[in-house]
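Figure 6 in text form: structure in, sequence out.
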């Protein structure tokens, strides 16, 4: 008969093995056509590096993460960056920029602790309007 203590240790070891908790790992995300879009590296269970790729395999951006702090990017299926978002402790924090397929800024949004505070949408004359969050 297995003791309760031994059983708990086995369950804990199995959970760590299944989820990769506390270990080193690499996660790969792909475009619909199968090309690598994002490669995330983890050390001791924490995200340490992200590398974003174009459809042709060229590195678009790389972020070295420190305790959930760095810059995150959003890519579109066409292989271009549609957003650049500053992250602090795993939450959007600061001014995020949103881009069209030519790399032009089409909007900005201010975040604080993951919550959107304001949004600025530029017009053709590069003037913008600021919309404060309504409570």
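Output sequence:
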């Amino acid at each position: 008969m297995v003791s309760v203590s031994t059983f708990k240790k086995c369950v804990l070891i199995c959970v760590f093995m299944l989820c990769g908790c506390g270990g080193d790992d690499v996660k790969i995300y792909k475009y619909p056509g199968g090309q690598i879009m994002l490669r995330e590296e983890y050390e001791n269970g924490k995200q340490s590096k992200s590398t974003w790729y174009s459809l042709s395999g060229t590195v678009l951006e790389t972020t070295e993460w420190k305790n959930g702090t760095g810059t995150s990017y959003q890519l579109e299926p066409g292989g271009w960056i549609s957003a650049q978002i500053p992250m602090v402790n795993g939450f959007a924090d600061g001014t995020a920029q949103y881009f069209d397929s030519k790399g032009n800024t089409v909007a900005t949004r201010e975040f604080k602790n993951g919550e959107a505070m304001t949004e600025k949408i530029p017009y053709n004359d590069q003037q913008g309007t600021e919309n404060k969050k309504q409570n």
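Caption detail: The mean pLDDT is 79.
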